[in-house]
Amino acid sequence: MPQNKRESLIYTVLMCFVMVFWMSMYNVTLHMGSPSLDVLREGWLGFPIAYIYAMCFDWFLVSKLAKGFAFRFLVKPESSTLRKVICISSCMVVPMVIVMSLYGGLEMCVRTGEWGQLGMIWLTNIPKNFIMALPFQLLIAGPIVRKVFRSAFPVGSVQ
């Protein structure tokens, strides 16, 4: 887990990259029907704006709320590292899915011009995204990003 603000920023940049890239590909695949090179192209073209949107929400709002909730109700500072990681990661996924599902709905409405459908698109995106994002975060992205992060930045190396 990050030990200071700089480590936290680096970790967030890495985690956001992995999660937004994966979820972009997942959502484009859902929309287009099956994985293909077109899915990869569309997902990659939409990635930069989605990444900036996710980073801003993550860094300025969601991480503070998620960590506050986790440490108030779910874990204590003396809890095991694994328990803290699972609780904080889970608490991050819920609001990020809500926020990013709204982004996906907005993106869809911009493409189709059907602004009256925004609420329905948003509400149907939330469960679809949640069932992919939570397991992916806990089982794949989290462990990989933590491993890469600690390999690149051993504890105490970022001041």
UniProtKB/TrEMBL annotation:
Q: Which InterPro entries match?
A: DUF2798
Q: Where are the transmembrane segments?
A: 9-25, 45-65, 85-106, 126-145
- Key word Transmembrane present: yes
Q: Which UniProt keywords are listed?
A: Membrane, Transmembrane, Transmembrane helix
Coiled-coil spans are: none
User: Where does the source fall among the domains of life?
Assistant: Bacteria
Record carries keyword Membrane:
yes
Q: What is the official name of this protein in its record?
A: DUF2798 domain-containing protein
